[in-house]
Amino acid sequence: VNVGCVPKKVMWNAAVHAEFVHDHADYGFETPGVKFNWRIIKDKRDAYVRRLNDIYENNVKKAHIDIIRGYGKFTADLEPTIEVEGKKYTAPHILIATGGRPAVPSDSEIPGASLGMTSDGFFDLKELPRRSVIVGAGYIAVEIAGILSTLGSKAALLIRQDKVV
């Protein structure tokens, strides 16, 4: 939600608006000099995600649910118990939201890998890149390639394939 779905949808919507602007002349609208400012959408997107996080956290607190941040592990206790930072917590229901981190290969595995970024890096970009190469063919790669291309980056999508389809 924080570094994927919601911010990607904001960027997707920005690309949809760019497509509408592109097509305006076909519908009789004159829109000379329309410019896109990556920094504005980035700042507004980031603020929107922060606001949503605050809303979610407040709703959890209103429901009298404790949020415990830290590294946890299940214990061998008879009751469902986790230990976080040396303190044990027991409850009938325990939810562990692990999050996820992408695996980035080393330069020795894939020469030049350190020159790339993960999809998280996409959301950290301070400006729209003039050119971009997206490696992969999953839906996130295809969506990011489409967003970048529509907003003005010369984008390419690299797909590894054992055979020509």
UniProtKB/TrEMBL annotation:
Its cofactor is FAD. The keyword Plastid does not apply. One of its GO terms (molecular function) is flavin adenine dinucleotide binding. GO terms for biological process: cell redox homeostasis; cellular response to oxidative stress; glutathione metabolic process. InterPro entries: FAD/NAD-bd_sf, FAD/NAD-binding_dom, GSHR/TRXR-like. It is found in: Cytoplasm; Mitochondrion. Keywords: Cytoplasm, Disulfide bond, Mitochondrion, NADP, Oxidoreductase, Redox-active center. GO terms for cellular component: cytosol; mitochondrion. It catalyses: 2 glutathione + NADP(+) = glutathione disulfide + NADPH + H(+). SUPFAM superfamilies: FAD/NAD(P)-binding domain (SSF51905). Residues 1-164 form the FAD/NAD(P)-binding domain. Belongs to the class-I pyridine nucleotide-disulfide oxidoreductase family. This is GSHR protein. It comes from Daphoenositta chrysoptera (varied sittella).
